[in-house]
Specification:
Blueprint lengths: L13 H20 L10 H29 L11 H27 L5 H45 L15 E5 L6 E5 L3 E7 L2 E8 L2 E7 L3 H8 L5 E5 L2 E4 L3 E7 L2 E6 L6 E2 L5 H13 L2
Antiparallel strand pairs: 1-2, 3-4, 3-7, 4-5, 6-7, 8-9, 9-10
Helix pairs in contact: 1-2, 2-3, 3-4
């Protein structure tokens, strides 16, 4: 079902302001150029000022929503669980505070009564005007990103399965890696070839490794940044996500969906996500590994 398909979750950042500004600009241009709802009867300067106020309502509402909701409901706003359906509901919710803001602004500008009837009228108009382009944009974006990352994953998979492997380049390095806890009181030693991936857990990192042909894990109080430093001499280890470091030497397959690339590791059931910020770096790493062979 298309509503259950994975969809990328845009985390709040400075780019959010750009997107909300574009939404506000669209509102402004529609009101100034198309002049709906009787705006054609107003002088140009007055119409432009009123249109700017409605655009400001859109900008403030969407910006506050974009930053506030993920902070209030972190368990809901998780990319690994984000779907087309959730994105559609999220976009529809944006229309609610915009409607309320427009309702209050219209009362202030034109004296429209603040009644439930006028509120539901505004809701109806806002949803009728906004729902179709929003849904169409989400569905088209999902299809575009799906095709993009599936095609990219196919190319990466071909590079991954070249005759020589990444691990063959590391024979001159120590066979074991020693991780220390943040306070230096605990150490964990594991063979580099046995490590599958490392993930962060609050102020801890969990190291997943192969032990007696079974996947095991060890929890250590430290950060992935420290782990990156320890693993820096070993080119097969790659930071693919803010919460994951993987051993590319045991990567068996690269897949892709609308959220980006996914790594499938030997002996690991979990599919490891690749952050979109690291897509280009993953391509570069695999390409470099092949170019030196």
């Amino acid at each position: 079902m298309i509503l259950r398909r994975p969809f990328p979750l845009d985390t709040p950042s400075r780019h959010t302001f750009r997107y909300t500004f574009y939404a506000a600009l669209c509102v402004f241009l529609i009101l100034v150029l198309l002049q709906p709802f009787g705006l054609d009867e107003l002088p140009f300067l007055t119409r432009s000022f009123h249109a700017a106020l409605y655009g400001l309502v859109t900008f403030i509402s969407t910006t506050v929503n974009s930053f506030l909701l993920p902070g209030l409901f972190p368990a809901v706003y998780r990319e690994e669980k984000w779907t087309v359906g959730k994105e559609l509901l999220h976009m529809c919710w944006h229309l609610v505070p915009i409607t309320i803001g427009n309702w209050l602004l219209t009362h202030w500008l034109y004296g429209v009564p603040l009644s439930l009837h006028t509120l539901f009228t505004f809701l109806w108009i806002t949803f009728v005007v906004g729902i179709f382009p929003l849904w169409l944009n989400v569905l088209l974006k999902q299809q575009r990103l799906l095709k993009k990352y599936q095609a990219g994953a196919t190319r990466l998979d071909e590079q991954l399965h070249q005759p020589q492997s990444i691990s063959q380049e590391t024979t001159h390095l120590p066979a074991a890696i020693v991780f220390e806890s943040e306070n230096g009181k605990e150490q964990f030693t594991v063979a580099a070839a046995d490590i599958r991936y490392i993930t962060s857990a609050d102020n801890y990192m969990r190291i997943y490794f192969l032990q007696e042909n079974k996947l095991a894990s060890h929890l250590l109080r430290n950060t992935l940044r420290k782990a990156e430093g320890v693993l820096s001499p070993f080119p097969q280890f790659f930071r693919c996500h803010r919460a994951y470091i993987v051993n590319l030497a045991v990567a068996e397959h690269v897949s892709g969906n609308a959220q980006g690339y996914k790594l499938h590791l030997k002996d690991v059931a979990e599919v490891i996500p690749v952050s979109r910020n690291f897509n280009a770096k993953l391509t570069e790493v695999l390409t470099q590994q092949q170019s030196v062979k």
